[in-house]
Amino acid sequence: MRREIINISILLTVILWALSCSKGPVPVEDTKKEVVLNVDVILPQEIREQWMESITMAQNAIALAQSRVENPVRLNLRYHNEDTEDLDVLGYALTHPEEGADTCHAVVGPYYSYNATHILRYARDERLPVLMPTCTSVELQRIYAKETYSWFFTESDITQCEIMIGAARAVGATDVALVYSNDTYGQSFKDWFAFYATELDVHMAAEVPYAYTKGSDLRPFLQSVSDAAQGDKAFVLIALSDAGLYEEVCGQMAGFPSLFPICADACYESRVIQSWNDKHSFYLGVTPVGSVAQGFPQSYKELYDRLPYRGEAQVYDALCLLALGKTHQMVNGERCLINGKQVEYLQSPYTIGLTDHMRCIVASSEGEATLWDASGLATAFDAIRSGNPVSINGASGKLDFAPDSYTSILNTSYMLWAMGKDDGSVEPICYLSAAGSNTEASVTAMWERDKQWEQVFSDTPVDHDLGPVGSRWAVVVSPSTTWSNYRHQADAFAMYQLLRHSGYDDDHIVLVVEDNLYDYPRNAYPGQIFVERGGGNSGDAGIMGEDVRKNAVVDYHFTDLKVEDLADIMTGKSSERLPHVIHPDAASNVFFFWSGHGGEREGPLWGDEDAVRYFGKQRMKDIVTTMREQNLYRRMFFAIETCYSGRWGEALNGIPDVLVLTAANSYEPSKADVHSRELGVYLSNAFARTFRDCIVANNQITIYDLYKELAKTTNGSHVSIYNHAQYGSVYTENMEDYFLWRE
Question: Which CATH number fits domain 158-279: 3.90.930.60, 1.10.287.470, 3.50.30.80, 3.40.50.2300?
């Protein structure tokens, strides 16, 4: 019955739109007093043209839904060309209007993730709502999703990356490779490609993805993928940020008919689809779409004889939510309750704004469920004006937003499509979403993935005739020096505090950090460094929620060391320049922690990411081999927190009594974890945070249990253990070898 009602409602709405879609918004009677909302829409000109049908649909539906209202809300859309505007100048002008200029009440756009920060940073001080239909960069959303003014109407590209690899696997892919645009958009796919290839057990034909820039010669990379493929179905994932790049890549891919392309959402534009149809016999694509369960794509096709483009359902929802939010503001004024609690701000501007009333609407889980069409919107407007809650089903699906801020959508519908007819059309294969519905398959269920990939260990004891522990030594290194890399030094200081808490004195720890954060001009807490604000599981140890630099003894500023100095520090070769080194012997357990950046080829970098100077896999192997030959350890434990840290694990394989625990495998970047709005940086990484919590909770935790907890809480990379066959059973060996609590 509910489906029949929905279909009738959609049919009526289609008829009304058919009568008015070419005439703009339906006019209201002259006696009515409109409430005008100035909305600045920032899009490339060609996207504006593609989206105009959806924008017109939304404007018509909003007008029709308020046809009997005395003071209807009207959206006054003012367009700006994203490709030609100076977005910094525009962002300032919108948030600081000249005297006599009309106020900007909200922004829709930008279209590209790499342009969003230009607007968001100006909107922040005014809490001007910025509604972004297509900004899907993972890093952008991680930083801004908890801000109350930044609205994301599509999930981040983590889900899209999973769907692309999963789709390749579902059609029999034996190998995958990635070509990504070298910008904010492409970075999301680069960061998650190896993770999902590992999760879904698909061979990576290229260990290092290809960063494509305009004019690049992609053919040598494609040839290497073809040569390295282990089977006859090698898929190349292509995640580029704009249509022009896709057209370039299309021509180069045409020379490799044995490689099957699968394209990300920016490919879903008519000119790109046509150019690919002309040159390729088979390819797949993925794009966010309107919800099939709510009938938007079907209704759209009835009106315009095509499926909606990427972002059209999301811009429809954005415009409707603005009108509903303004109505809520008119009715409620300063009264704005989210989960029964009045919204308050402790910093200027203190007053409640439009964005808060929009949040209030989507935060409600009660009230009558309404559809996205004119009749459904009318019900929503009436409910809001009557002071009742409402549950909105938008064109893109149910408007469920993350409960930390209610501005980041939780569930997006995606279409997996294949090349269609010669006319440039596409053929939908299936519709997917993270949650699934009666018309959309669950992403997880479709790929039959019941649990995260987990490393398998042998349970064979290793007897190297180890005597009792005589001493414990530790070396803690952070090669990062910049404010943006705050988390690396912070994690190093926190590890130092953990070691001090567990029995090490300063003579037995060598701490290498630049130590330039405590007096940095942007540090809101001069003299102090934190890994978490407000306490944590290990707060009683003085390493979470407290100043981790307090009483720390820094032995060397990083920039004062040469790359070869670490060998002398590890092997006990003190000198006038290196007075503090460790002095282990055959009865010593040595703990080594490194927190910094890493590169795709060699793992940990010696310096910040822009230096791109590797410490070197062979260099580290030589150090440990020398220590082994000189009997300078009983056991050694490496905890490496960098991107591609598995490279060091591979390098140290085969050396007796050495265990390497890494935040990522050899093909993956590691992800930051705890972000501070106050400081504007990440404070810690999940790997180091969980490591600390586990040791504080139980210093006798087995290596396997530690690994399990790290694997569960370290998102976006696969925590890995290397050389366990040369160390001992991970099921029985525990961390008391390195952390022995003082009474």
Answer: 3.40.50.2300
